[in-house]
Amino acid sequence: MADAMKNVLDAILSEQAKPADYANLPLPFSMRAITTHKDEIRMFDGLESEKKDPRLSLHLDEVPVPEPGPNEAVVAVMASSINFNTVWSAIFEPIPTFQFLERAAKRSPWDKRHDLPYHIIGSDGAGVILRVGPGVTLFKPGDEVTIHCNYVDMQAPDGHDDSMLDPDQRIWGFETNFGGLAEVALVRANQLMPKPPHLTWEEAASLPLVNSTAYRMLVSHNGVQIKQGDIVLIWGAVGGLGGFAIQYVLNAGAFPICVVSSQERVRLCETIGARWVIDRRAEGYQFWNPDGSQNVSELRRLGKKIREMTGGEDPDVVYEHPGHETFAASVFIARPGGSIVTCASTTGYNHEYDNRYLWMNKKRIIGSHFANYREAWEANRLVVKRAIHPLLSETYPLEHTGEAAYRVHHNMQIGKISVRCLAPEDGLGVRDHEGRSRHIGQINLYRNAVKGEFRLVKTEP
Ligand code: NDP
User: Fold this and answer.
1) The whole model's pTM is what?
2) What confidence tier does 320 reach under pLDDT thresholds 50, 70, 90?
3) Which of 34, 111, 199, 349 has the fewest CB atoms within 10 Å distance of its CB?
4) Which atom of ligand 1 is nearest to the CA of 265?
5) pLDDT (tens digit, 9 = 90+) per residue, 65-118?
6) Ligand 1 centroid distance, CA of 236 (Å)
7) 344 lines ligand 1 (CB under 6 A)
8) Residue bearing the CA closest to ligand 1, atom 35
9) HSE (CB half, 13 Å, CA atoms) of 312?
10) Buried b (16+ CB within 10 A) or exposed e, 3-18
């Protein structure tokens, strides 16, 4: 590690450095970062998605550290996390992310900085601000922050009720360069949020993207605004998104129906507090016939299973993201007047479903995408208040990011995987030790990737 980067790390680890100390530290000239390469976007041509291997396309490179422009901040990243968009970036699907960078570059000279032959990816981060650009007022060097990924400057009128509607809204580290899987990241100041002081760097980094997305889908008026008593079916209930959905549903006094694919995951849902859990693999649902037509008897079998558990009730809300494989089932099982809230299509974008079940029963489909600053801030605030907890199962060092992305690509992880960028080991960054020790009902799922140890701890009040 170069001297300038070592000085930054020493300042953070000392826990004594003041804002002026950070402002006086020279910005490192270069940094280690996880990149994709523009000249490799065709490397997986002809392969099925499953065969496209992030370990081949993600590189650890030494690249220049960017300077902050107006309303921007440069952050020393202690930890980041793997999201499914890390996988999409790494397998160049649905389109190579370089197309986003090229398109945005036409917008302004500041945007043009992002259009490079390499793309530093990563849409989560926890770390310490090193520099702020002109116009930044809410944060200063030395502040410990988490970073959400809504990248928007709010010049168009369209986004002023909801910044996710801004025509230039982008996802940082996916549709922009200088993302979180690096020792230093470049962000807009309105992506910054206070780091929850009771969490480690890697726990804090596992939260912003999926937690904010789940908040908007379920809690916000832009989503379904669940209320007590609602029955909410959650696909992938201990995946990245699902691990937060289950917490929001329980916090609301609503009832989750969790769908997962192993007995280990069933047990975890029950430990978190779910009463109704379905092991989709054990049930062997086949929603599609070999000829591609919908298998209605299988939809009915799922509906019957749900009614057996709930005493005859259908879900008020279905939390959708698998897409093609499950969408017809989601529309079928929602109760009359119920909602299907969707933010993704992991198994395919073209959804086919029988529309009679929708219109005749007055069901609604609500599209949702990440979260505006207010929603991300509220989701972060609930973490600070220890009402929402990380569901972190594994951590990897930066140089093994490809392996971590491979595991997410193949549905091998539970909850989230974090990546240590500057943090030399797990467990650092806790400032509120008392708050941490008073966690109420926290689930701490932890698998040491190197040693293969697995432990699940639930701290009772
Ligand atoms: P994860 O891989 O962490 O979790 C997805 C879960 O989906 C898995 O745990 C798995 O659970 C379940 N699943 C996978 N395949 C199927 C299937 N065929 N049928 C039913 N369930 C399935 O991913 P994330 O939760 O982080 O993300 C999910 C999707 O949402 C991705 O496509 C991602 O890109 C997208 N996303 C979109 C966002 C937005 O803002 N628009 C934000 C965040 C994510 P199990 O096997 O246990 O059933």
Assistant:
1) 0.96
2) very high
3) 349
4) 47
5) 999 999 999 999 999 999 999 999 999 999 999 999 999 999 999 999 999 999
6) 6
7) yes
8) 344
9) 0
10) eebebbbebbeeeebe
